[in-house]
Amino acid sequence: MKKTGKLKKILTDRQTYIVPGVYDCISARLAEKAGFKLVSVTGNGMVAAVLGLPDVGLMTMREVVDCSRNIASCISLPAIGDADTGYGSALNTVRTVREFELAGLAGIHLEDQASPKKCAYYAGKRELVSIGHQVHKLRAVVETRQDKDFCLIARTDALLPYGMKEAAKRARAYMEAGADAVFVVGFTGEKEIDDFKRTCRDVPLIVNINDNNPLNGLGLKGFADLGVKLAFYPATLRSAAARAIKDALACLAGGSTRPLLDGLMALDEFNQVLDVGFYQQLEEKYVRG
Question: Which residues pair with 262 in a beta bridge?
């Protein structure tokens, strides 16, 4: 089954999934080896890793697609790309989706913020485009995507600035426009999710979880009980890696890495992550044989 079909099946089955946010090929490979069924490519982590800049719309569509292609190509799992606002009008968005399709992504999420967008983790009010504007973009994608199983996830940032009523209104409109699921940003408690699901019972719901958010304690069963389809953890891996690197550099500045040895991944294990053995076998057979 193609990766697009795998993701489509995930979004339509009766299960709930925890989804790690990966930002490079190593984090993606580790997620696959850890047994996850799909990954989300976090734009926040990607722009930090590639450009060393904040997630405020500075990375171009081409840069995002190229990095996402590398991630998608190194794993067998379906990967969801972060298409921001589509990088322009409905016409730009159509091309954006085609590029993500060609790059091997199984789907994307497309948000209803006005440009320049603002990361959900940053303070300040988010300006949104009108519902009609976003619906036109979504319909354009649905009508022009090459693979009908390529999944379109409509993201709305309406909850925090405009409240539950507006978020639910947009979610219903986006599903009617042909979205496969709705990604609602900003939930802070179980009651909010429960209220949303009562209003939008048939909407496959995706939420993003800040590691300091009270919802982080729910676990897989808790999310399932609330009717959540996917729980994105976009910042966990990049934050864990950044802290580990910072601590390692502090140790290295002291002139020795010995205090780190028990916490470092052994070379053999790291080689397994990269499938070094597979390429060594190819070398023996086709280069040295």
Answer: none
